[in-house]
Amino acid sequence: MSATAPTDPETADVLVVGSGIAGCAAALQAAREGSDVLLVTKAERPDDASTDWAQGGISTTRDEPESLKADILEASDGTADPSAVDVLVENADDAVEDVLLETLEIEFDETDDGEFDYTREAAHSAYRILHVDAATGTHILRPFLNHVDGHENIDVRQDTAALDLVTHEGRVHGVLTDEEPTGHPIFAGATVLATGGVGALYTRSTNPDDATGDGIAMAALAGADVADLEYVQFHPTAYAGDDPFLLSEALRGEGAVLRNGDGERFMDDYHPLGDLAPRDVVARAVETEREETGDVVLDVRTLEGEFAEEYPAIAEKCRDRGIEGEEIPVAPCEHFLCGGIDVDDRGRTTLDRLYAVGECARTGVHGANRLASTSLLEGLVWGLRAGEDAAEFDVEAEIVEAPDLRNSDPDLPERFAAEKSIRLKRTMDEYLGLERDPDEIARASAVLRRLKGEIDAYIRTRTARDLYELRNACVTALLIARAASENAESTGCHYVGEGDEEKATRASR
Question: Which CATH number is correct for 406-501, 3.10.20.90, 1.20.58.100, 3.40.50.450, 3.40.190.80?
Answer without folding.
Answer: 1.20.58.100
